[in-house]
Amino acid sequence: MKTVAVFAIKGGVGKTACAVNLAYASATQSARRTLLWDLDGQGAATFTLRLAPAGRSQRKLFAADAALDGMIQASDYARLDVLPADKSLRHLERAYAEDSARSLKKMLKSFDRDYDRVILDCPPGLTTLAEEVFRAADLIVVPLLPSPLSARAFEQLQAHLAKHHRKGPPLLPVWTMVDRRRALHKATVDAVPDRTAIPYAVAIEAMAVHQAPVAATTNGPAARAFGRLWGEVEVALR
Ligand SMILES: Nc1ncnc2c1ncn2[C@@H]1O[C@H](COP(=O)(O)OP(=O)(O)OP(=O)(O)O)[C@@H](O)[C@H]1O
Ligand SMILES: [Mg+2]
Predict the structure, then answer these.
(1) CA of 143 relative to ligand 1 center, distance in Å
(2) Domain count for the chain
(3) How many of the other CB atoms lie within 10 Å of CB of 120?
(4) For the chain, how many helices (H) and strands (E)?
(5) Residue 197 belongs to what domain range?
(6) What is the pLDDT of residue 68?
(7) Pocket of ligand 1 (CB under 6 A)
(8) Per-residue pLDDT band at 60 (split at 50, 70, 90)
(9) Contact, 99 vs 132, CB < 8 A?
(10) Taking a C-beta distance cutoff of 8 angstroms, is the pair 172, 142 a contact?
(11) What CATH number is attached to the domain comprising 122?
(12) For residue 198, how far is its CA from the centre of ligand 1 (angstroms)?
């Protein structure tokens, strides 16, 4: 089993859009048994896949005899399951901070038998939870807007990992919400030609309306871009 975190220091850069569509590509394009773990209390990934928190909360994952039954839910798509966000995520960070015997890495081990790929949709920011993610993930996909502030946030992330997680997972940066009609976007993206770019697309915005991954409803440029990105993720995991 491999764990792919979708993480960025900045908010609103397309992390959830990437996480949902990568999880869908994992389950369909690669036919992997896939778990999308919604680690953001806002629950946007959970909502986008038409799910709601189960009765039991993620906080229970910390119980010594934690049974995952009843927490993980099947999505509408074959091989794609979801661990939905719930209110208890507010306490998850404190639980990690207070009990050093607990770790996200250990919790992920319990999925080893049932899943080939776990995708983590992370909240923004260099939080305690982010440190757990850096220790647990095999790869970190980093969505970046084509702007100087995003580039700065990416450098901050690189510096943080170099300092505190020297043997940590590699980063796979990806441009998001790219509008090639805008001079700054075009120049920024063209300066790094081998980095995948997810276009600004109405189909991605509409995911929250259709409550479905883009590739489940269209086969346009946005769906194809996520498919290419998933291909890169698989190569990076080898
Ligand atoms: N490529 C895109 N084209 C158009 N709209 C997009 C694209 N990617 C994301 N969006 C829209 O931008 C908004 C933010 O995207 P998303 O929720 O994926 O970001 P996020 O980084 O997960 O945000 P947060 O930090 O709040 O978790 C959403 O309304 C989403 O529909
Ligand atoms: Mg999000």
Answers:
(1) 10
(2) 1
(3) 29
(4) 11, 8
(5) 2-237
(6) 54
(7) 11-17, 40, 44, 123-124, 176-177, 198, 200-201, 204-205, 208
(8) low
(9) no
(10) yes
(11) 3.40.50.300
(12) 11
